[in-house]
Design a protein that fits this description.
single chain; about 375 residues; alpha/beta; Rossmann fold; 2 domains; 7-stranded mixed β-sheet; two-stranded antiparallel ribbon; 12 helices; about 35% helix; elongated; disordered N terminus
Length: about 375
Amino acid sequence: MLTQSRGGESPQARGRELARIGRQLWQETGSVKEAAVELMNRYPDISSLQAHRYVCGLSQDQAAVRYNEVTGHQTSLGGTSINAWETWARARRGNASPPSFSSLLILATAYSSGPLGVANDHISPSDLVAEAYERLAPEDQLSLKKFTAADSPNEPSESGTGREGHPTKLDSQVISAEANVIGPDFNLAVPTVEYGNPEICLYSLPNPKPGQLLNLTWTSFGYGMERLVQQIKNVGRRVDVDACFGINEAGLVMATFLASAQFGRCPIGYLKCNKRRDLIALDRASVYPDLPGAPTIVLCDFEVKHADVVGFITREIRSRYPDAEIYFAVFGAMTKGRNLEVASFDDLTGAGIMRAADFKAVFIAATMSPPGIEPPLELR
């Protein structure tokens, strides 16, 4: 039976239309990678794997044919495998499975030749799974890291390149010679307390090596904590807190800083998450301080991506502390598109997750791109 997508359009018809738009974007930009990024900006529900295929104007079966051509027909891949990889990339269940590192290498070569099969674009395997990198097998993640590091043609610089290929001056500052580049400040309206100030001032964390985790320095980490303190002070009312809770070690460090700097050394809780595949469980090493009835709690997490960790945690907190009011402070929030200076809270990957958690207010230090950021000393 033919299933229908949004607006009554069949998935097949939508795929053909996206392929048409993808080819048109390739003609305008002259780059498979740039056209794929623009296609994802316009259609956030499609994965990077799909976007690159659409830009090449290929159906899943045609992509499989090109895959086999790259291997000199030593493989006999079918369209069902392409479908399984793309289903996995969109975080959907069913007949989904991640592509191996070797398969990503072949796909990157296949798609780099563009719609006509004669282009010679530079596409990295990590470009194809940027938003789904963290769900790859650890061995494939390591392989991608090593390959991308060796494959990067340029070192990061303080200036960027605009969409039209012209150099553009990033309104950014380097905190120190060994720190990360901090992108420009911008305001964003977020869920907040009644009659509170919904506007927070945050910044972007540009990643000079897309497809790799952005390793933060302690200087950058401290800068983000200062930004969270500023947002809390400017929420429009005094925030009296009974405890700060940190999710895993990085969140615990954040909770410790905020408790000391902003909340009069209030009690600190620790929530250690054990994650196995798509399941989350709290370790017995978690710490729950004694709190008064209906406490006010600040929950701290290092980053928000696709997984509903904060939803699981808030349900556990409210179960243990009935009628708790929970504020949420997160260092990095992933964006749906490549533009980190988002115009709307709903442009964040975890917007739905944070809204569903019904936080009293949300504070965000910075926005980030896939696959995310790594805290200092690789705190977990």
